[in-house]
Amino acid sequence: MLLALDAGNSNITIGAFEGRQLVSQWRLRTVHEQTSDEWGILLRNLFVPAGLDIEKVDGIIVCSVVPPIDSTLAAMTKRYFNREAMFVGPRTDLGLAIRYDNPNEVGADRLVNGVAGFYKYGGPCVIVDFGTTINFDVISRDAEYLGGAIAVGIGIAIDALFSRTARLPLVEFRPPKDVVGTNTVASMQSGLYFGAIGMIDGILERIVDKLGPETKAVATGGQAQMIVSGSRFLKVVDEHLTLEGLAMIWERNRR
User: Using CA atoms, how far apart are residues 154 and 171, in angstroms rounded to an integer?
Assistant: First the structure.
């Protein structure tokens, strides 16, 4: 059994694979102060209600964009799973050529999404990942990770409106009934929703112009489903794309 960990700034998503099949998935908050013992106990406790045997874990792969917790996760896998975790980075055999100016600057999650996007959907393609930030990751038809764009995440935008203004409330992100809001909450939801779609479609339009009309656009992450319903370019949502990319990289490197 493979344990795949996607450690982001807000959450850690964990998947258990038997072969290529994702049999269980969990999401935990990313807590910088958590010790390796706390992580280990949390993970072990997830296996019992899922009916999984922790002794069957024979591989662990991690993509992390939170360097302060990397050593803690590495210590946890050794102590609680008796396994050295594979951490994905630019020197990992990905099956993609990295064309970034400095490959060490690319987030591991962006590389993993590029792998999954290319080998599931073909190239050229662009993966839009809705997390703390909104990442656009572009892969050519020749299996090259070209780079992309990083935009402000929807959660950050909501927090900024609330914290930087005196009278605007904290609102839930959801599609509004109408683009013209008739109260403050509805007006904020309209601005947040259609503003996000306008930004996303604007960037995607330029990427498609650059790569060609056959470019596939795939969404994953938090608000992907809501955005896709209003987007001109995003039509496919792949909820488990990052975890599946980790499984692909594990299989490639294990061989």
Answer: 11
